[in-house]
Amino acid sequence: MPRVLISDKMSSKAADVFKARGIEVEETNGLSAADLADIIDGFEGLAVRSSTKVTAELIERASKLRVVGRAGIGVDNIDLNAASQRGIVVMNTPFGNSITTAEHTIAMLLASVRQIPEANNSTKAGKWEKSKFMGVEVSGKTLGIIGCGNIGSIVADRAQGLKMRVMAYDPFLSQERADDLGVKKVHFDTLLSVCDFISLHVPLTDKTRNIINQETIEKMKDGVRIINCARGGLVDEKALKQALDQGKVASAALDVFEQEPATENPLFECPNVIATPHLGAATSEAQVNVAIQVAEQISDYLLIGEITNALNVPSVSAEDAPKLMPYMALAKQIGSFAGQITESGIREVTIEYEGHVAELNTKPITSVLLEGLLKPHLDNVNMVSAPILAKERNIHINEVLRDRAGDYHTLMRLIVRTEKRTRSIAGTLFSNQEPRIVNLNGIEIEAELSPLMLYVANEDKPGLIGALGMILADAPIDI
Questions:
Q1: What is the rounded CA–CA span in Å between residue 155 and residue 138?
Q2: Residues 6+ apart with CB under 8 A from 108
Q3: Is the link from the previous residue into 266 a cis peptide, with omega within 30 of 0?
Q4: Which residues fall within 8 angstroms of residue 450, CB to CB, at 6 or more apart?
Q5: pLDDT of 406 above 90
Q6: What is the pLDDT of residues 82-120, one digit of tens each?
Q7: Which residue of the set 158, 231, 306, 354 is catalytic?
Q8: Closest among 244, 152, 139 to 196, alpha carbons compared
Q9: Cα separation, 459 vs 468, whole angstroms
Q10: How far apart are CA 122 and CA 132, in angstroms?
Q11: Catalytic-residue membership of 104
């Protein structure tokens, strides 16, 4: 029975899901890093929110750990690289709190333009300063959304309900998707220069860190209003404060900060800043949703190998899993075969998919093939860590997809270029889904794959097969 640790405060529904699936679950909350490190080694799964720091040191102590699930979107508290190197799947739950976070964004936008927090405080103080709090209508204004994924697209929909025009910058947003959402897809600089409001909905990466900075703020309209309910670190807070003080930015509504908990921050001194303590996902509905979702995802991975919303390995849905399993078995055997006969450093790997297999999700197949290829040479390799280990060793990976079918209805070919030579091996699935090697270094063959095989490369000389047969018979090994 797999064991899972829930190390942060989470809805009791998560534990209920694990128990219903036959998984042993233990709940803790508020453990120190040292105490958590002392007990983590007994668990295959770890469910966290934002409080637990899944560091490289913790991962080093977790010899049995196979999966970390984050009940929420951001994984800033998880060392993704360390987890990947150890072959641990890291999942998040990007859909459970999408509506909640989008609604908070709209609430922050409206509170900002109508100065609701300040007006509330003034009124309760008995001042009745009606003329002081002159607001701005959002109807007819242009909202720029940076990152039009799950949450950004919901914000776009809600903003259009307020009769706002919506522009979006997102390198992964197709024109067709933009048309479906009713947003105008624009370049980043265009969005900065024309929008009255700018809302951030991207993850925190090396490319997005301080995406709002002094340079980008200078490109914005005078009087722009900025909303960030995504991740702290997307906004250069020093540059934002300067722009607020100078009047370049009319107001900012911030739910996230560079340093959290944000008990002190120079932005708090600005009267035109609204701040909330990372409340984007803070509704009862969202907390239940993400708890259930993370428990279901961890359970599915530990029990049936289904991978959903993983950040460091290709996802494998329950629908795809039965179709992929025979190909993944073939890929692992082909990779292992090639790995065992490879004696020098690997420079380049090319995997060709032809026919039926080219129509499938080949990313998990490639990961499993690399696992088989590297396992004879490296310890602790699995489909999660194999691509990372290959990259660290400067092994260039190529994937080639061909729709057409050749001599076989489906074919997988592995080409390995090493420091000394190039080898190739190709395999297929017969009608009964049994794997077969059908080509080895350009020589057509037909061989079953089994756990124990003998591969012999030799010159074509009379008597060699007979001599080999005698050696095996003396062993004694049956052929």
A1: 14
A2: 227, 229, 253, 255, 274, 276
A3: no
A4: none
A5: no
A6: 998 888 999 999 888 899 999 999 999 999 999 999 999
A7: 231
A8: 139
A9: 13
A10: 10
A11: no
CA distance 390 to 392: 5
Asked whether 79 and 54 are in contact (CB, 8 A), the reply is yes
Q: Is the dihedral of CA 215, 221, 222, 223 positive or negative?
A: negative
Q: What angle do CA 420, 423, 428 make, to 5 degrees?
A: 165
Q: Name the token pair of 19.
A: 């128990």
β-bridge partners, 440: 425, 443
| The two three-digit tokens of residue 283, written as one number | 């509704």
Q: Which is it for the CA torsion 72, 186, 188, 311, positive or negative?
A: positive
Q: Is the pLDDT of residue 81 over 80?
A: yes
Which residue is listed with tokens 């190197």?
Answer: 85
Chain centroid offset of residue 330 CA: 26
404 is catalytic: no
* Residues 200, 71 contacting (CB under 8 angstroms): no
Select the highest-mean-pLDDT range: 350-354, 372-376, 465-469. Answer: 350-354
Contact assessment for residue 78 and residue 91, using Cβ atoms and an 8 Å cutoff: no
- Say how far apart CA 112 and CA 252 lie, in whole Å: 7
Q: Which residues pair with 348 in a beta bridge?
A: 396, 417
Reply yes or no on whether 260 is catalytic.
yes
Asked if residue 307 lies in contact with residue 314, where contact means CB atoms within 8 angstroms, the answer is yes
49 and 10 in contact (C-beta within 8 Å)?
Answer: yes
- pLDDT at position 164, please? 98
Distances (CA, A) of 263 to 230, 277, 282: 19, 9, 18
What tokens were used for 441? 């270094």
Query: Which pTM was predicted?
Result: 0.67
Which of the residues 57, 215, 260, 448 is marked catalytic?
260
Cis status, amide bond into 261, omega within 30 of 0 = yes
Kindly provide the b/e burial profile for residues 53-87, where b requires at least 16 CB atoms within 10 angstroms of the residue's own CB: ebbeebbeebeebbbbbbbbbbbebbbbebbbbbb
Candidates 70, 86, 278, 413; catalytic one: 278
CB 273 within 8 A of CB 248: no
The two structure tokens encoding residue 84: 């990947």
Burial class (CB in 10 A: 0-12, 13-18, 19+), 252: buried
The secondary structure of 100-138, three-state, reads HHHHHHHHHHHHHHCCHHHHHHHHHCCCCCHHHCCCCCC
The DSSP bridge partners found for residue 145 are 168, 199
CA-to-CA dists, residue 107 to 34, 273, 457, 461, angstroms = 40, 14, 71, 82
Burial category of 132 from C-beta neighbours within 10 Å (exposed 0-12, middle 13-18, buried 19 and up)? exposed
